[in-house]
Design goal:
homodimer, 2 domains, 6-phosphogluconate dehydrogenase C-terminal fold, three-stranded mixed β-sheet, Rossmann fold, 11 helices, six-stranded parallel β-sheet, 289 residues
């Protein structure tokens, strides 16, 4: 099934960039946007991210083949409940949420039979928000994780993956549980730590901050409301990840207390080597292998 | 006193960049370098970072007006003991170390009367090492912290500050104790945390790492030996900083456990606002106000 009518619910940075990327890929799709502010919808039309925009959710999803939830994670449950009765049989629904267990569970609970849900997490974005920062190339070479379950329709999964691929993404599959556990470690914990590193500084320390500190805390500039939703939605995994970080720092503190020079060096060298390997891997990906 | 003869002990990234910056600023100085490898000294001469190079420490400091220690922090004590008897009366010694209490204490203990020490921490560098990465503009607009004590000679302090200013730096003064405490928070802790964040990842998480993770952990790519010295030398402050980070993360974990939406958002918003203010401050500095 080739979708003809795409509905993007929430035309901010991600939703807007999806629209622009669809246009840039010359996909023959009518793009309808939903937003709760007329001004945003107007801008999205002006930028060419959507063809039509509605402040009315049911109007925005009417006749859609493919619906993408681009609102904050905290609104997904309510949105799914409201659009369920409006969707045509066979419609495919996906999302761009940074956590996956709750949205997949809610979708499988509230969407009517015949409407097919596939969880997606396109790993692209920025600490910026809003349609003003939308870019057609935001998704190029980035990774999109889909999170099928035993109840996921195989054809819908393929269609959703084909969609992300067409706008330039690589795809991989994880269970919603695996996704949320690994993302807690590699994304949600680093965000919480960056915020904590900024928060604990005395005023006198801030003028001494160098480029290293600015890089290390860049992600702490992200939107508080968005990250509140993510951290709360994934709180069990985030708390476990915090505990693991504390354990690692405790080992370091013990090595320092004991003056274990060689052990401290190995601890640091292992991290440096691992990061270097990661950077090589990322460069290969950007090379488009 | 205008120095005529500068000795740079250690011609790696920092020592080499000092030489290049002195040349770029057209300071009328003879630059002598010390290194323990002839090949490095040869390169430093080729790049124009030094005029002469010696593998013999006493030869390298003979007749020097200004000596800058650019070897790793862990070697400072030994170097100071060895150069003390070779220095002429009135010579000024400074350093580029990232920790300041130990080098200042050692210098005040072992240098002979008449040789004047001023602790310096030019906050410039990179995760790269070696003369190959030296740059004449490495210090431009960056901050150099000097760490005078009641025993510091006032004229020597002014001369050292004038030197850093001439190669493009801003300067400020802190006591060695204050320096080490604040730097533990704003530099040494972030480094330890970045290494811990890399180290705790499962293999399966690394392919999911995005730009945020790479930025947050960039400093973990630094040299293990160098950072071992820094963390060990400043271990009391680093351990206190680790404890404060753990406390902050514990508060977050408690808010998450209790589902305190508003408190989590405030915690994140406060960090984002603080970092934004810091970025504005850094931009003003780069603007050269």
């Amino acid at each position: 099934m080739q979708p003809h009518h795409l509905s993007i619910l929430g035309v901010g940075l991600l939703g807007g960039s999806i629209g622009l990327a669809v246009r840039a890929a010359a996909m023959p799709l009518r793009i309808v946007g939903y937003g709760h502010r007329a001004a945003t919808l107007h801008k999205a039309r002006e930028y060419g991210a959507i063809d039509e925009g509605y402040e009315d959710l049911s109007r925005a999803v009417r006749d859609a083949d493919l619906v993408i939830l681009c609102t904050p994670v905290g609104l997904f449950g309510d949105t799914l409940r409201r659009i369920g009765p409006e969707l045509k049989p066979g419609a495919v629904v996906t999302d761009v949420g940074s956590t996956k267990r709750s949205v997949v569970r809610q979708a499988e609970e509230v969407l009517p039979p015949g409407v097919r849900f596939v969880g997606s997490h396109p790993m692209a974005g920025s600490e910026k928000r809003g349609i003003e920062f939308a870019r057609a190339d935001l998704f190029q070479n980035a990774l999109c994780i889909t999170t099928p379950t035993p109840r996921t329709d195989a054809e819908a999964l393929k269609n959703v993956e084909a969609f992300w691929t067409t706008i330039g993404m690589r795809t991989c599959r994880l269970s919603p549980e695996e996704h949320d556990r690994l993302l807690a470690d590699v994304s949600h914990l680093p965000h919480a730590v960056a915020a904590a590193l900024v928060g604990l500084q005395e005023e006198a320390a801030l003028p001494l901050a160098g480029k290293g500190f600015l890089d290390a805390t860049r992600i702490a500039g992200g939107d508080g409301g968005l990250w509140r939703d993510i951290l709360l939605d994934n709180r069990d995994n985030v708390r476990a990840a915090v505990q693991r970080l504390k354990n690692r720092l405790d080992s370091l503190a013990t090595m320092l207390e004991r003056g274990e020079e060689e052990a401290v060096k190995q601890w640091l060298d292992a991290a440096a080597a691992r990061r270097e390997e990661l950077v090589r891997q990322k460069l290969r990906e950007l090379g488009g292998e």
